[in-house]
Amino acid sequence: MPRKVFFLCFLLFPVFASAQSVIINEIAWMGIPIEGVDEKQWWRYEFLELYNAGDQDISLQGWKVELRTGEILEFTILLHGVLPAKEYFLAAASDKILGADVNYSTLSGKFKNSGQRVVLKDAAGLMVEEIDAQKSWFAGDNDLKLTMERRFFDRPAEDPENWGSSAIEGGTPKAQNSVFGKEAFLKLDSLQKEQDLMKKDPIWISFLEVITNGVFTRAFLVALLSVAGVLLLRRYLLRGSPRDGDSSDALRD
């Protein structure tokens, strides 16, 4: 009996390990720019990208992605086909999104801009990955149409710091993410430096602070009074000294 159990586990484990290699890699929850489509309609062109980080091809037959708010199931993306090792799989809302492997026109607008819970399940109905971004998406920008990209394959999907906004408008469907391999704190440090530079006061404000400083004001008044005193003293001395016209009178005496 133990030998049979061991043999069964040996057979099942590779399947389980392979399933864990499939990850959620990028989400265009805001929609992306599409050539020839009016900008006001770009929100319709949403997509979700998977990646097979393993060394074996994975059949996605029976797999699905659930979009939820709390426990309420709002939409299901049914998957099919094969996801080759080290390759991407794109579930898109339109075939106008280049590289779409699954085309769901009904996916359009199903990603909430306010945030959502995204659950990837395998053919057995077991959860492979989950992103609980119900309060707000971990990354991405609706106005600039920057997608939410994953940084590292081997770090958890539920970690907000494992996601970043794409550096490319429209994201990187079926290609390596622009933030791949980049730590979140590097971006935060850079952003902080930019904000600090923007917050620096103009030169005239610094000058104003100096001249309104109490110590500076007192020093300035003392210097001003000193100069005035010197001028008054000089004027007094000049008035008391004999003029050129007075020398003849002194000789006559």
What does the average pLDDT come to? 83
| Number of DSSP strand runs | 12
Sketch the topology as an H/E string, one letter per element.
HEEEEEEEEEEEEHHHH
Helix-strand makeup class: alpha+beta
Strand order of the largest sheet: 8-7-2-1-11-12
Strand content: 15-25%
Helix content: 25-40%
Number of helices: 5
User: Unreliable segments (pLDDT under 50, ≥5 consecutive)?
Assistant: 3-17, 247-253
- Terminal CA distance reads 147 Å
Q: Which value, in Å, is the CA radius of gyration? A: 37 Å
Sheet with the most strands? 6 strands, mixed
Globally, the shape reads elongated
Describe the structure.
By secondary structure, the chain is α+β, with helices and mostly antiparallel strands. Helices cover 31% and strands 22% of the residues. The chain has five helices and twelve strands. The protein has helices at residues 2-20, 184-199, 203-211, 214-240, 246-252; strands at residues 22-28, 47-52, 58-59, 64-69, 72-78, 82-83, 88-92, 102-103, 116-121, 127-133, 148-150, 163-165. The protein has a six-stranded mixed beta sheet. Strand 9 (116-121) and strand 10 (127-133) form a beta hairpin. The chain is elongated and about 115 Å long.
